[in-house]
Every structure is written in structure tokens, then in C-alpha cells.
Amino acid sequence: MDDNEYDSLGATEKGPNEKMPLIQHGTSRYKPRCPITVEPVMFLYFLGTVATAPLATQYLHAKVADDLHFDPEQYHSNQSEDISICLLNASDPVVKMEQLVQEISSGWLQKFSLATMIPAIIVTTFYGSYSDKGGRKFCILLPCVGSFIKNVCNIVVVTFKLDISWLVITCVIEGMFGYYATILIGGMSYIADITTEKQRAFRILVLEVMLWLGSAISQVIIGYWVKADPTFLGPTVFITVLYGVSALYTFFLITETVEKDPEARFFTLDNVKAMLLMYARAPNGEDPSRVWKIRTLCFTMLFGTMSLVATSTVDVLYELNFPFCWTSTKIGWYTAAVSVATQVAGLLTLPLFKRCKMPEPVIMMIGTMSALLWKGMVAFANHDWEMYVAGGLGVLGILLVPVLRAVMSEQVSAHEQGTLFASIASIDCACSLLGGVLFSTVYEYTVMYYRGAVYLTMVGMYIIALIAILYYFIRSSRERKQNMVKKSCFSVHNHDDMRVQVTAFPEPKET
């Protein structure tokens, strides 16, 4: 590879906090021949993962109802049926039974979340730092294999109609392989390896769009498939195949960007220590202000992403419930419509905001406000059109996460990217765990009295994130101005020193 290719990769470009080249010792000086790298595997993996959420929720709903000898399908809205739960009084025994099914299903969803996320959080702390020395492919391949094994087990559970508790065991298996958090480490770190600071936010957004696109397609597919195959076996097999294909793609088609260190070890406390030290102090030669910046951005991510990564199951229960009583098909189309609108809005607005030189914290605030309005309107929605308007208000919510990841990535050097994204993935896992338990619990205990209370809880999360972003913006702007003043004074001082030297040592006159 010639020098021009190396420079175009951003290997010699240094940001204000990237004092080392983006591609340095320990990483291959490699520019992908094809601009499409990890995007397909991320799309396939999240197509399966996002499809699993509504599938598991609806399977639980049907399984619990069957155990209680209750058939909710005959009461759900359908033009070919005369009876609809939405036409019944809230005190009707049928409505009460539906609420009981929702409560029990919500309780099982909490157990699934705990069984998956607790082991995922533990192993993720090792995977990220190891990827800086052991390679990125490892972090991309492992979750694909784990999810494949889990879904093979799910096929057995669904086929033989085993007890729901067996699904908890399959969730533990998936969590031990890192779940989606680990594949995010590998994918995001891979993108950071092959991009410059200027390219990074948009490339991360493209990666996020792959996740949302997978979400949109999977929702429509699962909606129709569940209606056509109430046994849930067909969709489960389809998801298993997706994970198998993603594993094969990773193994054969993704080129490693990190030159593996033969002394790299996986289970070592040094990996955990490296992640914790990132939030404690800056390495020698790095800007010490990066510590408070990373801490603030981490806090923002905790509250800003919890409502994004942990609400899909609650959303499905909310839409199945009174007064909407949506079918699986309608839920799929609604989710797909919101996802597509969000992707288009994100791809159009982020480059526009960048071209207008809008500060990244301002973009994050716009995304947070959009998501806040979305959840706030859903909390008070009573009609279908209000749900669609709420989704329209939230289309810019996609801007928060990719820009936040990019800003955090800019704070660290190239050899810390895997460690950084490991911490981000751990936060994602914590958000899924805490958010899944919190929102399911709130919904379980408030659905009888005020079903929208769970969404008001999400609004509170976004308000906290918005305050944190505002604090980051004000303080970082102030520090930037102070640094500019210091540089200006230093420049003037050096200029005066040069004038003194010229005066003290005049050039000899010609004789």
C-alpha cells in the first residue's frame, strides 16, 4: 500500500485528544478494499436480535394465556370477529384476565433480561480490552455463535412445548458469549480503526442505521409470520439461520485490523483495570480534562440510552393492551414505519448539521429532545393516530447515540478504542438490565391504574441526560475559550521575546 492510501486512512491525522496516529503499532496499516466491512454482519445479527424481542414477548403472552386457559385472540381487534377486548368495559372479567396475562408475561421478561445481561456485563469487561491486542474479529464472531446456540435450544423448547423456565437457561448461554454488547465492541472498534475523526460520527451513524434497518424489517416479518404460524417455530428457525449466516460472514469475509499480540490474554484483571483507569486519570501526555468529559458522557449514555435499548418488550405489551389492542401485524408495521422514518431523518440531518458546523453537544441535545417528546406523547396516547404522531416527533432521537459514541471515541487514543467501546458496551448492558427490570416492574405495577406511567419514567431519564449534555457543552466551551486565550498570550509572549533578541543582537553594519 502506498503512502497516499495510508494517509487517506487517517493514519497521520491527529485530533486534539488523539496524540497517537489512528493506525499505529499493534494495528495493521490496512485500508479495506471494499468500503462495506462490518455493516452486513451487524445488520444480520441485529435483524435476528431485534426480531427476538417481539417474538419472545408474543410467545410468552400466548404461552401464559394457554397455561391460564385463556384465549386472547378471540378478543383482539379484527374486522372478521364480532368480539373485541377494546369494546369491553375495563371492569369486565375478560379485561382483568388480559391484564393478569400481561403482568405474568412482564415478570418472565424481567427474568430473561437478568439471565442474559448479568453474564454479558461480566464477560464484556474482558472482551473489549482484549480486542485491542487480540483482534476485533473475535468480538464480532463470538456473539453470533452464542446467539446461534441459544436459538437452536429455543427450537427444541418451542417444538416440544417445554416449560418457560427452560428459556431462562438459553438466555444465560447467550449472555456468556457476550450478547449484542460484545458485537458492538467489535463493530464500533473496527470502524474506529479505519476512520478519521471527521469520518467517524457518520460511519457510526451508518452502523446504527444498519441496526434500525434490521429492526424495521424484522418487525414486519415477525408480525406476519406469527399470525401465519402461531406455533412460533418458523420464526425461531429463521432467526437461527440469520445468526448462522452472520457467523460465517464474519469468519470468512471480515479482515482483521489488529495485529494479534501473542502474549495477549483474555481472562486477566489488566483488561478490567485498563477500562477503569480510563475514567480515573489520563495517561501521560494526554489532556487531563478528558477524564471529566468521559465521565460526563458516560453518565449521559446511561440515562440517554436506557429508554432506547430496554423498552421494546414493554412497547409490545403496551400496544397489545387496551385501548389499542393491536395485532402482531399492526405492531410490526408501526415499528417498521417509525424505524424507516428515523433512519432517513438521521442520514439526512446529521450531514446537514455537520455542514452547518453545529457543535456535537447541540446535535445530542436535539436528539434527546426528540426522544423525550416521543415518549412523552406515547404516555398520554389513547388513539392510533397519536401513536404515529409520537413516532414522528421521535425521528431525530437516532442522533443521540452515534454522536455520543463518536465524541467519546475522540477523547481517547487509538490503542484505547477497544477498551473505550468495552466500557460503552458495558453501559449498554447495564441499560438493558436496569431498564428492562425497571420498566417491566413499573409497567407490571401500574398497568392496572395508569398504563402510561412507564413512559413518564422514560421522560425523566431523558431530562437527566439533557441536563448532563448541557453541562458538558457549557464547561467544554468555557475550557476551549480559556485554551485559546492561553495560546494567544503564549504566541504574543514568544513574539516579544523574538523582538528583544533582535534588538540585543543587531546585525553588523557594512563598512
TrEMBL record:
The chain crosses the membrane at residues 41-60, 108-128, 140-160, 166-192, 204-226, 232-255, 294-311, 331-350, 362-381, 387-408, 420-441, 453-474. It comes from the Eukaryota. It is a multi-pass membrane protein. Its main location: membrane. Residues 1-23 are annotated as: Disordered. The keyword Membrane applies. This is Proton-coupled folate transporter-like.
